[in-house]
Write a structure and sequence with these properties.
alpha/beta, five-stranded parallel sheet, 8 helices, binds S-adenosylmethionine, 9 strands, two-stranded antiparallel sheet
């Protein structure tokens, strides 16, 4: 996968050198390039913003440098070490008014060969940039959640981390991805390690039993209980895809979840 990030704060993306993503880059599993939007300006002050049309508070990002950097990303082989055959990227535009990012979208993006991020600042990017980009690439405004950040960089970091860890070979034990929170609409079960007793608190006995079926049943029950308690909104999606057993319905009732289909 190839990822391009356009920003006025390239240093914000420095953590992409670290940990699993840094290792994946060095192993050639993902290629990441950060572009400074100001390199696409032509005035002495490298200006990227201007007053909002129609008046009002704040500043808006001017379209010209965005147009030029996107031309570069779309040009065959342009600024792209992977060569002339590289596909046009899907352009993700972090925005609090975008489609909400979630695990299914992470899976979808992980299946793409190339994505790019247009990281806005100030009051955002002149809308014509998105309209014009949409004539030559897929453009997706995407929100990290229902709150407002100062810029798109933190959103890009979060999305890249969620996507890259799904690429084959990035996470050592691929099995660990299967039961994680938000896979199959349930949250993950609680996890424990040594010592068996810590400050008077025990690791649940079943986990030391060595009995794989009992451990799996306990973990499934914990996933269901935790989801019903913390994220009851996810249970409806889980019920839509599963025919619950009597035991599962009982667990949901115990956790105060009333919409137990079929009872
Ligand atoms: N005026 C904009 C609005 O009300 O929709 C908010 C602009 S915000 C201060 C500046 C930039 O931060 C946005 O252009 C976007 O790139 C990024 N941003 C803010 N909140 C975000 C969120 N929840 N998800 C993704 N990006 C966000």
């Amino acid at each position: 996968m190839r990822i391009d990030i356009v920003t006025i704060f390239p240093k914000y993306l420095a953590p992409l050198e670290l940990s699993l993503i840094g290792r994946a880059r060095r192993a050639g599993l993902v290629e990441i390039a950060v572009h400074d939007l100001r390199d696409f300006t032509h005035d002495r002050h490298r200006t990227v913003d201007d007053a909002p049309a129609g008046g009002g508070a704040g500043m808006v990002m001017r379209p010209e440098p965005w147009g030029e950097v996107l031309d570069r990303l779309c040009a065959p082989g342009g600024d792209d070490p992977s060569g002339a055959d590289a596909p046009t990227p899907t352009l993700l535009v972090p925005s609090p008014s975008g489609e909400r990012f979630d695990q299914p979208m992470a899976h979808e993006l992980a299946g793409l060969e190339r994505i790019a991020f247009a990281c806005g600042r100030y009051e955002g990017i002149d809308e014509r940039v998105l309209d014009e980009a949409a004539t030559r690439m897929s453009v997706r405004p995407v929100s990290l959640g229902d709150y407002v950040l100062n810029g798109g960089e933190v959103a890009a970091l979060a999305i890249i981390e969620a996507v890259v860890r799904l690429l084959p070979g990035v996470v050592g034990n691929a099995e660990s991805l299967l039961e994680e929170s938000h896979e199959g609409h349930l949250l993950e079960y609680p996890v424990y390690t040594r010592p068996a007793t810590w400050r008077g608190r025990e690791v649940p006995e079943v986990l030391a039993s060595g009995h794989h079926a009992r451990i799996a049943a306990w973990r499934h029950e914990q996933r269901l209980r935790r989801t019903a308690r913390r994220r009851p909104d996810l249970i409806a999606a889980w019920l839509a895809e599963h025919r619950p057993t009597e035991r599962e319905l009982q667990i949901l009732r115990e956790e105060g979840h009333e919409q137990d289909r079929g009872s």
